[in-house]
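re: ur msg from earlier - yeah i can do the MD6 complex, just paste it... oh wait u already did. ok heres what im feeding in:
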Amino acid sequence: MRCCSGKRGRQRWRSERPTGDLVTADLFADQTLLEEEFQPGAFLLRGFVTSSNSQLTAQLQVILAEASLRHMRTPGGFLMSVGMSNCGAHGWVTDRRGYRYDPQDPESGRPWPPMPAPWRDLARGAAARCGFAHFEPDACLINRYAPGARMSLHQDKNERDFTQPIVSVSIGLPAVFQFGGALRSDKALRVPLAHGDVVVWGGPARLRFHGVLPLKDGQHPVFGSQRINLTFRRVL
Ligand code: MD6
Ligand code: FE
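and the outut:
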C-alpha cells in the first residue's frame, strides 16, 4: 500500500496528521493504516471527518428540508434503491432522459441548496491531502442507503474535467465499497468504509468502475439505520 501524499512508497500514520488532534497513538492496535492509496489514484482517509455529528445532522437537515431525498429512475426505467438529493451549484439527476447535472431541483424548480462551507472545506482538505491541490467542488450529491440499498458498478463520467478528483464522505452505518477496473466485468476490490471515512478518487482511478454492496442492517448510535454518502465533484 502506498501513502497518499508526499513521496510514493511512504506510509502515513495518524500521528503524522498535521492537525495534531490525535496524538495518542501511532497506530491502532490492529495496525490499521489510516491513510492509504489502495489503488493508484484512489485513496482512503479513515476517520478524516472532524465535524461533529450534531453539525452534520443540522447541515443535512437544512439541505434535505429544502431538497428532499427521492428515488430517481435510471434511463432504463429502474427505480434506484438509494435516496438522493444535492447541494451546490449543480445537482446530479437521472430520469428517462438520461444522467446529467442540473442547476435546479427538478422537483421544485428551484436551485439546489448551497453547499455548506465546512463541507466544501472538508472536501478541499481531503483532496489536497492526496495531491489534488486545486479542487473546488461545485456539486455535492447526497446518497442515503437504507438496509438493502446498493449502488451497482458504474463510472462517474458526467463531469467535464477528469483531472479533478471526486471526494466521497461516509456517514452512519458501514458499507462495502467495490472498486473495479476500466471495464464493468473487471474483478472488483472490496473496501470497507466506516462513519467518518473519506475516499478520494482521481488521476488513473478517475474512471474506474465502482459501486456499493447492499447495506447490511444495523444501528449507528447517531444516524440510526442508514448510511449517508456525500460525493463532491467539480462539474464545470
Ligand atoms: C457511495 N459512491 O459511496 C457511492 N463515486 O455511496 C460513489 O458512487 C463514488 O464514493 C465516485 C467516487 C467515490 C464514490
Ligand atoms: Fe460514483
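cool cool. Residues 1-27 have pLDDT under 50 and may be disordered. ping me if u need the other ligands too
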